[in-house]
Design goal:
Shape of chain A: globular
Radius of gyration of chain A: 18 Å
Order of helices and strands of chain A: HEEHEEEEH
Largest sheet of chain A: 6 strands, antiparallel
Strand order of the largest sheet of chain A: 1-2-3-4-5-6
Structural class of chain A: alpha+beta
Distance between the termini of chain A: 57 Å
Oligomer: homodimer
Strand content of chain A: 25-35%
Largest interface: A-B, 54 and 54 residues
């Protein structure tokens, strides 16, 4: 009994430990949190003035390579876009600068035309907060994502326009 | 004569070729453009509403590691911060989103307390536009950089506050 309790507590501790990708629960549609996304290269950024959030869009190697070459309509198979979202705040030392404050969520689009053909060839997933709680009650949550992206169907369902950077093709 | 002309044209072509770090001229203080900075990991972002620009701050491995561990006052020796700056624009498909448009410049702070002790331990440099023209007429341009950073002397001369991310120390 004591052993069982210890194991249960240990499991709970592992499941709720924040910040370690290995132990983050998958999204309700079984998508796993991509590992190491925090260190992916940057594709673009934005400031949404409607909901007062700052965003930086990162990508895995396939996505970044496509972005640098302007080959993003369609994005290639295997591309993953990762959007980091923060509530906007003000820089204390320069109040003309809007800066990221509280971390809101990390959301992902994973390109697999076959696997995700019902949602434009993209798998959607989101993890909320610094403790990365999977978003959505069940797998129908993707309809919300997909619905919001319908206006950009002509841009392969992606809002992000890669930012121009002084660099050769990767 | 024909050979000389060819060589001159070739040299000019090499010097002005945009987008390839190998051929970008150093800053007037002899700082060389850090290689591969475009793919460095993200440290933070901002929207400056005074001059209508969006910024993403990237860092080399030393800087990113320090940022993830909140060990940034002072930043460690060898840290390089790279700030990408774009003019703000509007996303056509979502006009509540301010997005990067024209690339303005990439600017760098390189931590070497000994080498750059006259300017707070930081070497400053900037390359303008997609063709990466070095900023400044002579090496005194750093006084302009350093002057602007004086208000954040207490933050190791750095404005950037690393954005919170759900991740373990690198």
């Amino acid at each position: 009994m004591k052993y069982l309790l210890t194991m249960t507590l240990l499991s709970f501790s592992l499941l709720t430990h924040a910040g370690d990708n290995e132990k983050v629960a998958p999204a309700p549609n079984q998508i796993e949190l991509p590992k190491g996304y925090q260190d992916w290269a940057m594709i673009s950024s934005s400031h949404r003035v409607d909901n007062h959030s700052l965003r930086v869009i990162l990508g895995n190697d396939i996505a970044v390579s496509a972005a640098r070459k302007n080959k993003t309509n369609p994005w290639p198979e295997g591309a993953i876009l990762a959007k980091m979202v923060w509530k906007e705040g003000e820089l204390e030392t320069w109040n003309q600068a809007i800066v990221p404050e509280k971390f809101v969520h990390a959301e992902f689009m994973i390109k697999d035309s076959e696997k995700y053909k019902k949602t434009g060839g993209w798998g959607f997933a989101r993890w909320v907060g610094l403790d990365q709680k999977p978003y959505g009650q069940d797998e129908n949550f993707v309809q919300e994502c997909f619905g919001c992206h319908t206006p950009v169907k002509g841009n392969d369902w992606v809002y992000t326009i890669p930012s121009k950077l002084p660099m050769p093709a990767k």
